[in-house]
Every structure is written in structure tokens, then in C-alpha cells.
Amino acid sequence: MYRIVGLWLLCLIGTVLPERSAAACGITGHRLALRQDTLSVSADSVKRPQKENYWRRLLYGHEDRSFEKKLDVSFAVAPSYAWETGLGLGGMATGLYRLDRTDSLMPPSDVMLSGSVTLRGAYLLNAEGNTYFKGRRSRLAWRVGLQNKPLDFWGIDRQACAVNPAIAYTRRQVATSLHYRYAWQKHLFVGARFELLYAHAVQIDDPAYLQGQRASYLESGLGVSLEYDSRDFIPNPRRGIYLSAVQTIWPAGLGNYGRTLWRTTLTADYYQPVWRGGLLAFDLYGRFGSDNLPWPMREQLGGRWRMRGYYEGRYTDNHIVAAQVELRQSITRRLGFVVWYGGGTVFSDFGSLRWEDLLPSYGIGIRFEFKHNINLRVDYGFGRQSGGVIFSMGEAF
After folding, report:
1. Could you write out the DSSP letters of every residue in 169-191?
2. pTM beyond 0.85, yes or no
């Protein structure tokens, strides 16, 4: 039987290389010509593979093709909107790749790019990703961001933000971070981190809001980390636990603030399936820094990840604590929704932390699987006398 199948395959190859396969099929002379005529007539009835194009990438982008392609990319260009920057034109692209395409247990590496230009004069460009190296022992997380944002500004500490009227300023910023992790034990990682930040407040209506600090700063930081990570896929975990402690030092000689700074970041996340298509996700987060940090390094309440529903920078200070729980529910294979509730605050020091300063955050969102296990998300968040829309790639946590 195998010989018969092999003979038929050789005959089919003869449609492309008829001269080489004719003898093997027993087709010579006028019989070969007849065979070619027959094939030419029936060729139109054979369905040819569809060419890869933009719409096929968009419609079938959720399929994991990282085993067959060096870089599996999907992209989209569409109108964009952000609460802080307004209406504009944006684009996004995400790709999956594998440094070892023989390892089916290792999750694919990912890269996400996004950018936009808005009617308010803002422009943003962000790139981030996670690279898994061969052997599943080490990984690299990286992020680069460039922005020029005309924004509202209330001050650089919680007390000032509570009483000051909003003024306008433009924030120009370049930020990058590299975080390398090595698996010391199963799910237990030790890591090293590098951060670089340049920020400049230009066209600020009232420089007194900076409380005597400079309008621009350049700072570089070095850090170490200890993590327990059993998540199945970082951009969109379906199960697992993530516990992280990161300590970063910003030496005086690697910046222009004039003194050495430090910052500690603690994260605890938990992901638990609850029923068919349903997932509960929990997030507890705290970041604590030196007293009187330069304004670009201070924590801003709101944004894409935590305390959604607040204008990013509406409340700013040295430290932040935040918690949230989110229910994620699939509706169809690629479409889903989420609801969440949480709270948090920023504060100058632990002595000034008050229960009444905690602010609520809750909302609802839609998810579309733009790439395999990577969601395009649209959230509408609510806060205390606040609310707004968030567009982003990947989950909030």
C-alpha cells in the first residue's frame, strides 16, 4: 500500500516536474501530453492556498503560528482615544516568536508595539515584550517608551493634588527598562534590572507646582529581584501565582538629582479559573521610594494598569498602594468581557497614610483576542467623581 501511495505522490509531483516523473508513472509520449492537457483543464478547479494579507492576519491572528513562522505578526491601524490625550490616529502590532521551536512546553516570546498621534498634539510610541531563552531557565522583559503629552497637572504630592486647581503642562519623556530573570529553582527566579528615565516639563503654566524642583531630570537605576512565578503566559495569564520583590537603587553618579535614591516594588497576583470560560484574577501592589523623590519618579494614580478610572497623574506622591479583583469571562472563542473592583491611594510617608484617603476603582471592559492569547482591551473605569476610557494591549495585570 505504501508503494502505491508513493507512486501516486510521485505522479502528482509530475504536475510540476513532468519530465522527471513521467517515467516513474509509466507515462510517455502522447500519454504525457494527454496527462498534461487533462491537468491544465482541471487546474482551475483546484483550490489554491490563499495568500497572506492584512485581513487574514486580522481574522485569524488568534491562531498560534509561532512554530511555523520566525515571527508571527498581526497589526491594525485605527482611530485612537485616550482620556489624557484625546482623539487621534493610532496603530498597534503584536508578534509571537520562539527561540526554540522544538520546545512545545515553553510559551512563545512576545513583542507589542503601539503608537498614536492626537489632535491635542500628543505623540506616543511604546514597545515592550518578553523573551524566553532556550532551556526555559531564563527570560528577559523589556520596555521602551517615548511620549510628548499635553496634560493637566495638579502638583507632585497628595495634599497639593487635593486642593490645587488643574493647570496645563507638556510632559516629554523617554523611559526604558530591562529585567533579566534566571530560574534558580522551579518557578523561583532571581533577576537583575536596569532602568533609564528622562523627563522634561515644558510649557508649564505655573512652575511653583513643582515645589522648587527642576523642570527636567535624567536618572538611571540598577536593581535586583526575587520572584515566584507559575503563570502560564505573562501577557494574559489563565492560571498561576506571581509574587515579586524588586529593589532598585538610583546612584547619585548616574543621574542629575544630586543624591542616591531607592525604590521597593512589591507585587502579589493570583489567577484562578472558577467555571467554564470564567477566571478570577487578584492583584495587590505597592511601590515605596525615597522621601522627596524627583517629580518624574513619583507614583501617579490612574492609567492603564491600576486604579483605572482616574486621570493619570490626578494624584501623585512618593508611594502607592493598590488592590483589585477582576472577573474575566469568555463569550466566544475570541470575545470576552471583564468587571473589576479595587482601591488604592498615593501618600508622602507612612505617617500620613489615612483610611479615608483610599479611593475606589471599578468598571467594565471588553476583550478581543487580537493575537494568540494577547487581548485588545477596552475598559471604562469609574473612580471618585471620575471616569474614563482605556484602550490597551494585554491585560491590566
Report:
1. EEEEEEEEEEEEEEEEETTEEEE
2. no
